[in-house]
C-alpha cells in the first residue's frame, strides 16, 4: 500500500515536472541538457567504476574469467601471427577465433557443453552437408541449386522445430543451432567452392583447436565449476531459510524480560530477514547450473555423475519452504502487542519450533557444505516435531473464555504456518539424506564404519544400499544387535520411517 | 512424505534389479540390450512423434516459426545461387547465412534485439578494428603482432567483464559478444589480409542483408510479438489465481446442503487448483519478454514505448499472491470434517472473500485482455474488504466456550491467509489501475468521457494526469459538483485512497 502511494505520488511529481518543462520551451530545454552533459558523464563514469568494483568484489572469479577469455583469444591468434601455423591453416584460422569467443563461458560445464555441442554438430552437419552437396550434383546444373535450397529449407525448419522440445532446448540447443549453421554453410558455399572436403577439413580442425583451447584454459586456469556452484547455492539457500526462522522467532515471540533490548536488536536484523527472498526465484539458476554440471568431469569432492538432479529436488523443497516463509513474513509487521496473553502461552513451543527448524536447516546446510552425513540434523527435526506436539497440548489446555478471537487469529495463523514449515524442513531433511546416500557423503562418526558392533553405521549403509541383504539369498545379512540401546530405537524408527519396503524385508 | 517413500522404494528396486543383472554376466546383458533395440527405437520414435504433435498443438506458431527460419535461409542462399548477386558479394555471402541462423528468434522483439545489437556491434567494432590495425602498423613488422595481441587481449577482457553488469547482460549481451568477435576478426585477420577496408565493407553489407531479411520475415510473416505474449501471460496468470480462489472457496467451505454433490464435483476441479503453480516461477519468462518487448515497434493495440515495466510490477504482485495461495493450498488436504461448527460460522464471510477476490481478479484479467478501464473490479475489491469486516464481526461474536482450539487453528489460519490474499488482490488492482492510466486503456463507460455532469469520469482522468489542474495556474480545474450523490463518496474515497497528494491539492 505504502509503495503504491509513493509510486502514484512520483507519477504525479513527474507530471508536474513535465508541465513546468513544457512551459520553458525547447531551446531552454536543450541548453539545460547541454549544461548538464559534463555532470551526466561524470555520474555515468562514477557509477560505472562503482558497479565494476562491486562486481569484482562480489565475485573475483569474474575478473579471472575476463582475463581467461583474453588469454584464450591471444593463444588462438597465434594461428595468424606465427608464420608456420598460418601457412598450415590460412584464413581458416578465423574459425578458431570465432569458436573461442562463442564457446568460452563462465563455468567449465557451460564451456564443455558448448564446445562438445559445437564439435559434434559441426562434424555431423559437415558430413551431411557434403552428402547433400553430392546428391544435388546428380540433378544437373539447373537442378542443383533447387535441390540444395529445398534440402536447406527442410533441414533448417525441422531443426528449428526440435529446439522447442524442452529436453533438447535445455541441453543441446547450441548444438542444433550449429548443426543448421554448418549444414547450410557447407551445402550452400559448396555450390561455389570447388574443394569442399578440404574446406570442411580445415574448418573442422580450426574449430577443434579453438574449442580445445577454451576447454583447456577453462579447466586449467582457476576453473569455475558449475557443479560446485550448484552445491554451494543449494547449501546457502537452506542457510538463508534457517537465518530467517532464527530471526523470526526472536522478532515475533520476544522474551518478556528483555523486551526493550530485543526490539533494538531486531532493527538490525531486518536486513537478515530479507535474505530468504532470493530463494523464491532460484529455480532457473539451479536448473541451468545442474544442466552444466552434468557435462563436467570429476573435480574436487565431486565425481563424474554426481547426483546433481537430487540438488534440484532439494531446491524445489527449499522453495516450497520459502513460500511458506513469505506467508509468515506477512504477519511480522502486524501489531506485536496484540493478544500478548495468548502469544505468551504458545511462545515456548512456537519458539522451539522456530529454533529447532532453524538448527535443523543449519545442520543440513553444513552437512551439504562439508559433505558429511546429515544425521546431526535428525535430532533437531525430531525436536521440532516434539514442539508441534507440545503446541497441540498447549492449545488444548488454553482457556478461551475471556479471549479475543479476533486478536488470536493472526497468531494462530503463525502457529499453523510454522507447523507447515516444520513439515517442509522434515522433507528437506529426507531429500538431503537421500543425497548423502547417492553421493556417499562421509559418515560423521568416523570410528563406526565397518565394525559389526556398531549397528548404527551398518543400518545406515543398509539403507543406502551398499549392502544388499536377504535378496542375494546368502545368510550374512545384518542382524540387529541390541546391546547399544541408546542408538537402536532411534535408528529403527528412522529406518521404518524412510523405507518401509526394506524394513519389511528385514523383519 | 509419500513421494519420499516411493522414491526410496524405487531406489531400492533399482538396486535389486542391478543385483540380478550383475549375476547374469556381461554377455547376456549385451544380448538383452541388442534384443531390446528395435523396441527402444520404436519407443523413441513414438515418443518423438507424440512430443512433436503436442508442441505443435500447444502453440501452432512454433511450426510457423520453423518454416520462417527455412524461408529466410533460402532467401539469403540466393546470394550464392544467383550469379549476379554472387559476383557482387562472393564468399562474403556466408556471413548473411550465418547471421540469419544466429539472429532469427521466436519473437519479433528478440530478433530485433539481436539484429540491432549485431549491426551496431559490427559497425563500431569494425571501425575500431581498422583503427587498431593502422595503429599497430606504426610499430613496424616486429611490433605489429605484439601490439595487436595486446589490444585484442585488453579489449576482450574488458568486454567480457562488462557482460557481468546486469543491465548490459539483460539487453546488450549479444552485442558485446559480437563486438569482441568482430574486433578480434578484423584486427587479427587484418594482419594477413591486405584490403581490410574492402573486407569489412563486404562483411558489413552481407550481415546487414542477413539481419534485414530476418527482421522483415519476422515482422511480415505471422509475427510473434513479445509484448503481446507478455500482455497475455500477465492476464492469464491473474486468471489462474482467480480460478484457484474460486475453486478453493467451494472446496474448503462446502455448502452444508449439497455436500455430496460438491465432493463429487471437486474431484474434477483438483486439476484446476494446480494452475496457480506456474505463476510461482514466471519471473524469468516475464522479464525476458519485457526486455524483448521494448525493442518492438508499435503493433496492434500496443504503441511503441508501451509501459512494459508496469507488467513486471503486476507480475511481482501476482507472484506474491501466488505464494500466499501456495500456503493456503497446504491446508486444503487437511481434515475437512474438523470443527465443522466453527467452520460454518465463518463460512459466509470467508466464502465471500474468496469469491469477491476471485471476481476482482477475473475482472482485472479481463480489463487487461480487453485493455479497458479496470473500474469494474473496484466494486469486488470493496466487497472483499467488506467481507473482511464481516469476518471480524463474526469472530468477535463467536463464543469459544466449548470450542476445540486445536481444530480451530488451521481454519483460523485459512481465514488469516485469505485476508492477506485480499490485500494482495487490492495491490494488484492498484497496479493494474496504474497500468490502465499509463497505457491509456479505454474507459468502459463510453458516454461519460467529457461531460461536466459526470464527476466520476473527470476525477478518474484527473488522477490519470491527462488534465493538470491547479498547477497550471489557470482556473478551469475540475469542480466537484455534488448533484450525483450516488457516485461521489465512492469516488472521493477512491481518490483519497489512491493519490493523497493530488487530493490535497484539490482541497
UniProtKB/TrEMBL annotation, chains A, B:
Keyword annotations from UniProtKB, A to Z: Ion channel, Ion transport, Membrane, Transmembrane, Transmembrane helix, Transport
Q: Does the keyword Transmembrane apply?
A: yes
Chain segments annotated as transmembrane: 63-82, 94-112, 146-165, 172-193, 205-226
Localization (cell): Membrane
Q: Which InterPro entries match?
A: ALMT (IPR020966)
GO-annotated biological processes: malate transport; monoatomic ion transmembrane transport
Location, primary (coarse class): membrane
Q: Which Pfam families match?
A: ALMT
Per UniProt, what is the membrane topology? Answer: Multi-pass membrane protein
Give any Gene Ontology cellular component: membrane
Q: Which family does it belong to?
A: Belongs to the aromatic acid exporter (TC 2.A.85) family.
Give the protein's recorded name: Aluminum-activated malate transporter
Amino acid at each position: 500500500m505504502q509503495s503504491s502511494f509513493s509510486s502514484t505520488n512520483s507519477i504525479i511529481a513527474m507530471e508536474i515536472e513535465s508541465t513546468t518543462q513544457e512551459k520553458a520551451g525547447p531551446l531552454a530545454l536543450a541548453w539545460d541538457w547541454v549544461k548538464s552533459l559534463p555532470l551526466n558523464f561524470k555520474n555515468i563514469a562514477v557509477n560505472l567504476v562503482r558497479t565494476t568494483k562491486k562486481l569484482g568484489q562480489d565475485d573475483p572469479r569474474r575478473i579471472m574469467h575476463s582475463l581467461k577469455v583474453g588469454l584464450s583469444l591471444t593463444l588462438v591468434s597465434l594461428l595468424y601471427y606465427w608464420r608456420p601455423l598460418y601457412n598450415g591453416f590460412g584464413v581458416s584460422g578465423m574459425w578458431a577465433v570465432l569458436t573461442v569467443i562463442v564457446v568460452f563461458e563462465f563455468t567449465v560445464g557451460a564451456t564443455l557443453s558448448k564446445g562438445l555441442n559445437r564439435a559434434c554438430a559441426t562434424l555431423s552437419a559437415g558430413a551431411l552437408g557434403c552428402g547433400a552437396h553430392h546428391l544435388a550434383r546428380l540433378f544437373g546444373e539447373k537442378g542443383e541449386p533447387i535441390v540444395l535450397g529445398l534440402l536447406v529449407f527442410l533441414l533448417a525448419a525441422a531443426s528449428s522445430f526440435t529446439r522447442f522440445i524442452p529436453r533438447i532446448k535445455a541441453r543441446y540447443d547450441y548444438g542444433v543451432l550449429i548443426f543448421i549453421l554448418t549444414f547450410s554453410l557447407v551445402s550452400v558455399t559448396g555450390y561455389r567452392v570447388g574443394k569442399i572436403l578440404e574446406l570442411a577439413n580445415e574448418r573442422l580442425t580450426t574449430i577443434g583447436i579453438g574449442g580445445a583451447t577454451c576447454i583447456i584454459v577453462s579447466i586449467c586456469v582457476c576453473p569455475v565449476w558449475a557443479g560446485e556452484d550448484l552445491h554451494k547455492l543449494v547449501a546457502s539457500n537452506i542457510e538463508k531459510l534457517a537465518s530467517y526462522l532464527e530471526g523470526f522467532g526472536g522478532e515475533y515471540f520476544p522474551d518478556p524480560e528483555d523486551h526493550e533490548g530485543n526490539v533494538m536488536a531486531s532493527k538490525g536484523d531486518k536486513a537478515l530477514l530479507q535474505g530468504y527472498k532470493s530463494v523464491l526465484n532460484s529455480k532457473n539458476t539451479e536448473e541451468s547450473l545442474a544442466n552444466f554440471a552434468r557435462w563436467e568431469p570429476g573435480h574436487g569432492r565431486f565425481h563424474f555423475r554426481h547426483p546433481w538432479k537430487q540438488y534440484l529436488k532439494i531446491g524445489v523443497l527449499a522453495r516450497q519452504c520459502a513460500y511458506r516463509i513469505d506467508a509468515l513474513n506477512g504477519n511480522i509487521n502486524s501489531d506485536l502487542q496484540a493478544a500478548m496473553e495468548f502469544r505468551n502461552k504458545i511462545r515456548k513451543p512456537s519458539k522451539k519450533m522456530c529454533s529447532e527448524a532453524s538448527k535443523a536447516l543449519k545442520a543440513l546446510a553444513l552437512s551439504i557444505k562439508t559433505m558429511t552425513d546429515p544425521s546431526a540434523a535428525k535430532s533437531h527435526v525430531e525436536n521440532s516435531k516434539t514442539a508441534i506436539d507440545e503446541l497441540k497440548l498447549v492449545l488444548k489446555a488454553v482457556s478461551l473464555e475471556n479471549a479475543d478471537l479476533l486478536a488470536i487469529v493472526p497468531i494462530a495463523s503463525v502457529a499453523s504456518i510454522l507447523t507447515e514449515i516444520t513439515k517442509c524442513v522434515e522433507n528437506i531433511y529426507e531429500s538431503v539424506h537421500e543425497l548423502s546416500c547417492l553421493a556417499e557423503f562421509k559418515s560423521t562418526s568416523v570410528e563406526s564404519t565397518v565394525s559389526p558392533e556398531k549397528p548404527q553405521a551398518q543400518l545406515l549403509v543398509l539403507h543406502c544400499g551398499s549392502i544388499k541383504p536377504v535378496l542375494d539369498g546368502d545368510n550374512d545379512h545384518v542382524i540387529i544387535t541390541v546391546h547399544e540401546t541408546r542408538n537402536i530405537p532411534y535408528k529403527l524408527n528412522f529406518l521404518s520411517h524412510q523405507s518401509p519396503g526394506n524394513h519389511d524385508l528385514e523383519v
